[in-house]
From TrEMBL:
Organism lineage: Bacteria, Bacillati, Actinomycetota, Actinomycetes, Propionibacteriales
SUPFAM superfamilies: Bet v1-like
Highest taxon, organism lineage: Bacteria
Name of the protein described by the UniProt record: Carbon monoxide dehydrogenase subunit G
Amino acid sequence: MVRAYEFADAWEVAASVDDVAGVLTDLEHYPRWWPQVRAVAKLGPDTAWVRCRSALPYTLDLVLDAVSRTPPVVEVALSGDLDGYARFGLTPTATGTRLEFRQEVVVHGLLALASYAGRPVLAWNHARMMAGCRDGLARRLSVVGA
């Protein structure tokens, strides 16, 4: 059993593209600024194991493989509980950087089964995850740029 999800979001931060890319490509330090990223372990130069848990009592185990670390695109391939990709497009603006987030994934097993009835709840859970990203990234970048 497989279910597909697509997510998109966009927002702006008051930091340079290079500063934003620097934080986004520093996976090992995600737990310092993104509350829903609970643990990260480096598996290789371009690969990390990540555990994420948003509002629902379910922890995702993921492996992230870097696809692009160079602006204007920061992208990882996702495998594990989700298969697909997550991508940030970074565009300079007059006051900082516009981030355009896109994620396309498929889920398997129990998560796919739960999504038949609970798709709106899983989408809400993802929205909470991304709110943590937006807020935490802005806080982290205010320290980096200081």
